[in-house]
Automatic annotation (TrEMBL):
Keyword presence, Hydrolase: yes
Enzyme Commission code(s) on record: 3.6.3.-
Gene: yxlF_1
UniProt keyword annotations, A-Z: ATP-binding, Hydrolase, Nucleotide-binding, Transport
Top-level EC class as recorded in UniProt: hydrolase
Protein name: Putative ABC transporter ATP-binding protein YxlF
Database matches in InterPro entries: AAA+_ATPase, ABC_transporter-like_ATP-bd, P-loop_NTPase
Molecular function terms from GO: ATP binding; ATP hydrolysis activity
Domain of life: Bacteria
Organism (species): Faecalibacterium prausnitzii
Length: 241
């Protein structure tokens, strides 16, 4: 689904992503895990075609970026960390509008909205104003808009930030359910979230890809592995001494 080869991103002189290569297979839920500033959002913004790489090759569903950006974007549903919701719209109006923006034909929009609402458990709140919804339901609206246009790949940027524990559990359930039909990339700095939801984890540290972990096969504890791989350099040096 995704091939990333020697990806580097600089913001001016700041190196945010440093020579990263990885593959995301179809139908797998990947966690993009790393401390603050590790490069997660930068990578997601490149995969979704919103940012250009400084160097390296990225292919999404067979479409190289940036050459085939429109075709690649059509294969991706994205939930940014701050979903662009319009509080004065009803859920139904917003999803219809989001489908229009994604180029879904008018005749297909009601069925697409219905299907996205069904997948995300929003059918009952379709007539409600977004501003009247809880944060958990708003996040589901964000996930529903990501499903419009039938993308094969869903990218979720820290989707559970600010949710209460019950809402987190519900959203985890929804993401696992989506993983049965989609390839999913979920960015997080919560280890328990990645363990609960993902099949594999890409661990980032200071712009580097420190490890690709198959969570079912990995015998070592994810917390231990994460701390070791993302420790600041001075600490790692001391350990080796
Ligand atoms: N627009 C920008 N201009 C300059 N530097 C940036 C910009 N965006 C990100 N950076 C820097 O690039 C590095 C990677 O940032 P990025 O936001 O990708 O990390 P992240 O892992 O998503 O962090 P967080 O978990 O805090 O969201 C950081 O050092 C950050 O300060």
């Amino acid at each position: 689904m995704i091939e990333v080869s020697h990806l580097t991103k600089k913001y001016g002189s700041r190196l945010a992503v440093d020579d990263i290569s990885f593959t995301v297979e179809d139908g797998v839920i990947y966690g993009l895990l790393g401390p603050n500033g590790a490069g997660k959002s930068t990578i997601m913004n490149i995969l979704t075609g919103y940012l250009a790489a400084t160097e390296g090759q990225v292919t999404v569903a067979g479409h190289p970026l940036p050459e085939e950006a429109d075709a690649a974007k059509a294969c991706v549903g994205y939930l940014p960390e701050q979903p662009p919701l319009y509080p004065e719209m009803t859920v139904a109006e917003y999803l219809d509008f989001a489908a229009e923006l994604k180029g879904v034909k008018k005749a297909d929009r009601p069925a697409q909205v219905q299907s996205a609402a069904h997948r995300t458990g929003l059918e009952e709140v379709l007539p409600r104003l977004i501003r009247s919804l809880s944060k958990g339901y708003r996040q589901r609206v964000g996930v529903a808009q990501a499903l419009l246009g039938s993308p094969q790949l869903i990218i979720l940027d820290e989707p559970t930030v600010g949710l209460d524990p019950a809402q987190v559990i519900e959203l985890h359930r929804l993401i696992r359910e989506l993983g049965r039909t989609h390839t999913v990339i979920l960015s997080s700095h919560i280890l328990s979230e990645v363990k609960a939801v993902c099949d594999k984890a890409l661990i980032l540290s200071q712009g580097h890809l420190a490890a690709v972990v198959d969570l079912a096969a990995e015998e070592r504890d994810l917390e231990e592995l994460f701390l070791e791989l993302t420790a600041p350099e001075e600490t790692s040096d001391k350990k080796e001494d």
